[in-house]
Design goal:
With about 260 residues, the chain is of the alpha+beta class. It is built from seven helices and nine strands, in the order βββααββαβαββαααβ. The chain starts with a strand and ends with a strand.
């Protein structure tokens, strides 16, 4: 009958570099036959580091503690610098330049002064600036320029009373049309200063056809230029025609003038 006895020997070895001791397990099997000794693989420093890293990656406490520590380190590293910069700016702005006047007061005063100068300059320029075209002596406008023509009132029914200029209907209609023409040309930026009067000469049958005459006055020294440009037939006619195209038929009622029927000579 054979008996075997397992004897486990623990050998203490010392690392020569740092003096750390570690155990190596050696197992010897004693038996009646030949005994063979075997040992467990020796542990090393690298194994210890790897096991610590693996434990940390598997959800251990080490990464969380390391992250929190790094965050606190960053806060302590950058926050004082930012606070010191803000405090430095505040300290510089609160420096007394002279007497009780501080730097921030001077900066605000400069901006207010610049704004005030801009507003005052704009106000002065608007008062001083004068448009030369607005300064004219109307007594110098003596040379007349006449235009005449006709237009049609399609919403008006012709009556015999319109043929008589002294009739109430003829005078009332003529007054309304003359007022419309006066308002048109006096409000014109180009022609208003030269416009003198508008006259409805007569009414004719054909719905109602009104014959009109326009009179403009211009200065003698500029009459050639004005006749060819500002007071030309094209200019006066286009102002009248544009006004007629802008009118609303429903709002004008019986005073509506057909733009197509406008003629001017």
């Amino acid at each position: 009958m054979e008996t075997s006895v397992d004897i486990e020997l623990q050998t203490i070895k010392t690392n020569g570099n740092d003096g750390a001791a570690y155990l190596s397990n050696e197992r010897v099997t004693a038996s009646n036959g030949d005994g063979a000794a075997y040992r467990y693989p020796d542990a090393s420093e690298r194994d210890g580091l790897l096991s610590g890293q693996i434990d940390g990656c598997n959800g251990g406490v080490a990464p969380s503690a390391h992250t929190a520590e790094a965050q606190r380190d960053l806060e302590h590293r950058f926050t004082p610098q930012e606070e010191s910069a803000v405090c430095r700016v505040k300290r510089e702005l609160n420096e007394v330049v002279f007497w009780k006047v501080r730097l921030w007061m001077i900066i605000i005063s400069i901006f207010v002064l610049i704004l005030a100068v801009i507003l005052i300059s704009m106000a002065v320029c608007s008062v001083i600036h004068e448009d030369k075209d607005d300064n004219f002596d109307r007594s110098m406008f003596k040379v007349p320029q006449h235009f005449h023509g006709s237009f049609q009132l399609p919403n008006r029914v012709f009556t015999e009373e319109l043929l008589t200029r002294s009739s109430n209907e003829s005078q009332a209609l003529a007054a309304d049309l003359q007022e419309k023409l006066v308002d048109l040309y006096t409000s014109s930026p180009a022609l208003g200063r030269y416009f003198s009067r508008a006259e409805i000469r007569e009414f004719r049958n054909g719905s109602v056809i009104a014959d009109y005459q326009l009179t403009f006055l211009m200065p003698e020294e500029q009459q050639d230029q004005l006749r060819n440009i500002t007071l030309s037939r094209e200019m006066v006619y286009n102002v009248f025609r544009q006004f007629l195209y802008d009118q609303e038929p429903d709002e004008s009622g019986q005073m509506y003038i057909d733009p197509v029927s406008l003629s001017m000579f």
